[in-house]
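Write out this protein's structure.
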Amino acid sequence: MENPVLHALMFLYQLWQSLIDILLSPTPPPPHAKLGRPKVAVIGAGITGVSSAAHCVGHGFDVHIFEAGPRKNLGGIWSRVNNTSSLQIHSLMYRFFPSVQWKGGYPNREQIVSQVTELWKQYGLEERTTFELKAERVYQDGKGRWIINDPSNGRFDGIIAAVGTCGEAKMAHIPGQEKFKGEILHSSNLTGTDAKGKEMIIIGGGASAVEALEFAAHENAAKTVILARSDKWIIPRNPVIDVLLALNIFGQETLLSWIPETLLRKFFYRDLEDLAPSEKGLFTSTPMVNSDVMDKIRTGKADWLRGDIVGFTETGIKFNHRAKGVPKGGPGKEIEITGDMAVMATGFARPSLAFLPEEMFVEPYSPPNWYLQTFAPAHPSICANNCTYVDAIGAVGNWHIGIYTRVLLMFLVDPLSRPSPYWMKKVWWFCFCIVINPFRWKWAFFVFFGIGYALPNRVVRREQSIRNGLGAKNGGYDKGTSF
C-alpha cells in the first residue's frame, strides 16, 4: 500500500479496493474442481470474457472460454495496443472485477493485462480456456443445449458472447500515401517507433488519437497535429466529473444535457471553445477523455484542425481546413501539413456477432435493441456482455459486467425469472428488470452485488418441487415464460 502520510487519497483508494475484494469477490474454486451445471461457454478472452467466466466459476457454475487468438491475446484489445497506452477514465470506473487492485488512477497497458492474467489464474481458468478457436457458429442440439462450431467442443446451457467492440485495426487508404517519405503507422502499433524530435501527423480525432498523442508526449515528439473530420466532445480526466456524467442512466441526450455541455465549454474548453461541438450533444457519442490535449494546444505543442484529408504529398498531407459549422466535404482553405510520420488514428473494426443464431437479429429487435441491451428476445440463455453498446459515457466496471453475468445465471437457474419474449421487448434497464418481477426479488442481492446465492437457490428448489407436483414443465434453459 502507498504511504498513508504522503499519499492519503491513494491509501484510502487502495483500502477501499481491498474492502471491495473482501466483501464482493466470489470464492475461487479449488484446483481441478468439478463444477456443476448449468454450464456456460464464454466466447472471447478479453477483460469481459475473463471477468464473466470468473463470476461463473466463483458461484459454482462450470465454464469454458473460447478465444480466437493465441495465448498472447489474453486481455483482448489491451494485449494489442501500445505500451504507452493507459486508461482514459479513472481506474475507479474500470474495476472489471471486485478483486482488481489498481496502484494508480490511470494504469497503463502492462498493468491492465497483468490484472486480467492474475484473475484468469486465480479462478482456475487456465484449464478452462481454449485458444486459437474462433466461434464460427453457435447452434442448439435436439435437447436445446448450445454447441460452439461442432459437438467436440462440448455442449452448454448458456452462452456469454464477450467479443468486445474493438477487433482488427482499421487502416484507411488515402490517395498518394505511397509518395510520403515518412512512416505511416496505425495508432495501436507505435511501440518501438522512434518519434523523438519528429513532427507527427495524427489522422483522426477519436480515442485512437488520444492514444497516439500519449505516445507522442512519451517519446518527446517535436510537435503533433491532429486532423479531425468532425468535432468530438472532450471531457477532463477527472474522476468526479466523469462519474457524474456517467450517471445519465438514459445513455442519450435529455432536456438537461445543456447544463454539463455549457459547463464544459465555459470551464474546460475556455479559450478553445471553438473546438467544442456546436450541433452534437455530449451524450450522442462516446467522448474523448483527456485533459493533456488542451494543455498541449495552448502551449503550441499540438494543433487540432477540423477538415478533410485531400491526400498525401512527399512531405506531408494536403488538408481542406474547414471553419466551425461547415459540414464534412464542405468548402474550406486547402493547406499542406508537413510531418515526419503519419499515424492513422482510424480505430478498430467492430467484431462480428454473426456466429450467433440468425433469429437473434430480427428487426427491430437486433443489437443494441435487446433486453437490457444484452439478451435477444429469441434466446434468454445467451448474454452478449459488453459488446452491443454503440456510444456511452460509463464504466467497464465489476458492476455491470458482473450484473449482466449474474442476470444470465439467474435466468439459467430459475425458470420463473426467465422473461418471455414479449417483456424482453419492453424492459430496458436492469433495475426495472428486477423490480417488476416478484420471482426475481429474491435474487436482488445476488444480481447487484454477487452475494447471497444460496438462499434464492434454495427457494428455487422449493418452487421447482411445487411446480413438479403440479405437472408444470420448465421447457429447458432457453425458454422464457415469466411475466
